[in-house]
Amino acid sequence: MPASRVSLTRYLIEQERDHGTIPPQLRLLLEVVARSCKGISLSVTKGALGDILGATESENVQGEVQKKLDIIANEVLIEANEWGGHLAAMASEEMDSIHVIPNRYPQGEYLLLFDPLDGSSNIDVNVSIGTIFSVLKKPTNSPAVTEADFLQAGNQQVAAGYCVYGPQTTLVLTVGNGVAMFTLDREQGSFVLTHENVKVPEDTQEFAINMSNMRHWDTPVKRYVDECLAGTEGPREKNFNMRWIASMVADVHRILTRGGVFMYPWDKREPNKPGKLRLMYEANPMSWLIEQAGGAATNGKQRILDIKPDALHQRVSVILGSKNEVDRVTEYHA
Ligand code: P6P
């Protein structure tokens, strides 16, 4: 590794030295998560060569059929994080209830939440997918950790990130001092710092939404997208491009890299659900990353990070990305 290349370990140690935001137990947690993502990446890249494609017979708490890789990724994260003494418990999209660290291991002060493999509908068609994670601190006054300890607003996170399994395997991380990206150097087997102080442009000409749901959208979203489609002849007086990868990790990575606005809004298909995406382990970590990179993230009405959760797997409407576009969509909701 050329001397100029900074490893994830060195970055975390220097962040602690400079900002005091990564105490040793949190550094251990982040390094274990990164190592888990390396393992998941190896399974993902096997594709049809490994017995990892296709679906299982089971469904997750969301009622979605679980892909084999969903289960594999979940088990990798559980097994890697159980013994270290840094966690009190974990929560996952793939598990109905929290996973408390077994008594045979010491318990730590952190809570780890994750979507072990987001975008799993793309696994079998070789499109980028990813792991999303969020770290909270266990409330000090609770002796035995319970699900209620997890129900903290996103503004309480101490770390958040994702790993995107695409042409490159890239880990993207924030601990509250901006966003850094680490690309997996497969020859070294280590994540290497490739982008620091990531910034999302405040303006964009690219929006991301599943257009097939247009007839189900609420008026503010329909107005915003119609104005984008009207291009230079419309009120925006500029043309827009559209992208929708149907992997939140891949869409957010593009936005962190070149700007854009991502929307998965409430729609009339399931009016009792506030949205499709999950607050605790999808919207919260992604929203913090976007804000740390100078972007914005709301549910149309309020800042996502200020939402006080009342259920572990609750859903939320998500509008995030370039600040001026998110502000405009939110303004249309007012
Ligand atoms: P749709 C993947 O299943 C996911 O949770 C997100 O990663 C993605 O943005 C969204 O759902 C895609 O949903 O309805 O377009 O397939």
Tell me the CATH topology of the largest domain. Answer: Fructose-1,6-Bisphosphatase, Chain A, domain 1
pLDDT average, as an integer? 94
Rg from alpha-carbon coordinates: 19 Å
Q: Name the overall outline.
A: globular
Just give the CATH class of the largest domain.
Alpha Beta
Major sheet size, sense and barrel closure = 8 strands, mixed
What is the tally of beta strands? 17
As laid out across the biggest beta sheet, the strand order is: 4-3-5-6-7-8-9-10
Please mark out the parts with pLDDT under 50 across 5 or more consecutive residues, or reply none: none
- Specify the CATH architecture of the largest domain: 2-Layer Sandwich
Number of structurally distinct domains? 2
What share of residues are in beta strands?
15-25%
The structural class is alpha+beta
Summarize the amount of helix as a percent range. Answer: 25-40%
Name of the CATH superfamily of the largest domain? Fructose-1,6-Bisphosphatase, subunit A, domain 1
SSE ordering: HHEEHEEEEEEEEEHEHEEHEEEH
- The number of helical runs is 7
Chemical compounds bound to the protein: 6-O-phosphono-alpha-D-fructofuranose
Give an overview of the whole structure:
The chain is an alpha+beta fold and 334 residues long. It has two domains: 8-195, Fructose-1,6-Bisphosphatase, Chain A, domain 1 (2-Layer Sandwich); 206-333, D-Maltodextrin-Binding Protein, domain 2, CATH 3.40.190. The protein has seven helices and 17 strands. The protein has helices at 8-19, 24-46, 68-82, 219-230, 248-258, 279-292, 323-333; strands at residues 55-59, 65-67, 87-92, 99-100, 110-118, 129-137, 159-165, 169-174, 179-185, 190-195, 206-208, 241-242, 261-264, 277-278, 296-298, 315-316, 318-321. β11 (206-208), α4 (219-230) and β12 form a beta-alpha-beta unit.
